[in-house]
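Agenda item 2: flavin mononucleotide complex prediction
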Amino acid sequence: MPRDNLDSPVRIGSVTLPGRVVAAPMAGVSDLPFRELARELGAAMVCTEMVSAEALVRRSGRTRALMRYAEGERPVSMQLFGGRPAVMAEAARVLCDHGVDLIDINMGCPVRKVVKSGAGAALMREPTQAAAVVAAVVAAADRPVTVKMRAGWDATSMNAVAVARACEQAGAAAVCVHARTRGDGFGPQRRYDVVAAVKAALTIPVIGNGGIDSPAAAMHVLAECACDAVMVGRAALGNPWIFAAIRAALRGAAPPVVTLGARRQALLRHLARAVEVHGEQLAVRRMRKHLAWYLHGLRDGHRVKEALQRLDSAAEVAAAVARYFDRLATVEATSGCAAVEVGE
Ligand SMILES: Cc1cc2nc3c(=O)[nH]c(=O)nc-3n(C[C@H](O)[C@H](O)[C@H](O)COP(=O)(O)O)c2cc1C
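Presented output:
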């Protein structure tokens, strides 16, 4: 791959992503405020939390809330989970009417309840059913359909290549391979050889995912797997700047410096947007984990995190965050020591 081409656009069917680093869908995390921030800070594409096709066709209010998106997010990728082709097709039609740009099918979720219903990672054990689901969604949707899968069900059945081929033949426009089996959960295993094998077997774009937690890791996966793009999940929690850092590395540039001021601003904007989107009570609850992630590795971060978990109003949280960052700035200015990455 030519060096100057590494931060290039990626075409997925009729949609062009502006770069090669995308944000992972994460239930309970990748809501509208998180996605907006990730997109703004350099992710070439973001994806919604998974949405149940069954609930969507029943018009569940909670599912409708998960479907909210903003124009600034485009291209909007919305993820469906379900195991019944007809229901998935009906849900896909609803998503098209809703204006999404891509539909992603979840074949990786390890959660027992999801798997028991024949959805998520269960589809890895049923390649024919997986292909039937993809074919039904492709027939129903006049826009690109992608699939996010695992390396396999477990170490004895690493069939991502076969499932990915079946998905491609059924009309998928791209696949993302999480380099772990369902049995691996979210552990340290990184089966990049499987991602590479899928890439070698397909003609559609392949996105590598799993354990990409730094620009070096992203470069390694892109080189080792020859994949078209990488997807970052947990490493973006509290660190949405990772997308820009990886994109800088792809261009051979130094990562952007994330100042205390930038952290403070991102955190407070994330909080304010969460209040707009979810209402104050839910926003403050949802933001507790984000606050902990943002403050990870900051001086005295653990103490402040604990205090923040007890606050119930957004104004109190914002004031406490502002006070904390003021204190950090003073410490930095007077001691000359960085307040970031001091360890905890
Ligand atoms: C809290 C959490 C929620 C997740 N929710 C989803 C989901 O809704 N859909 C999905 O396809 N993957 C989901 N995943 C998996 C991630 O998209 C990603 O594949 C996985 O975390 C591996 O990437 P990472 O090692 O960069 O975190 C979730 C992961 C986490 C940690």
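Discussion summary: The longest strand covers residues 145-152.
Owner for follow-up: CH.
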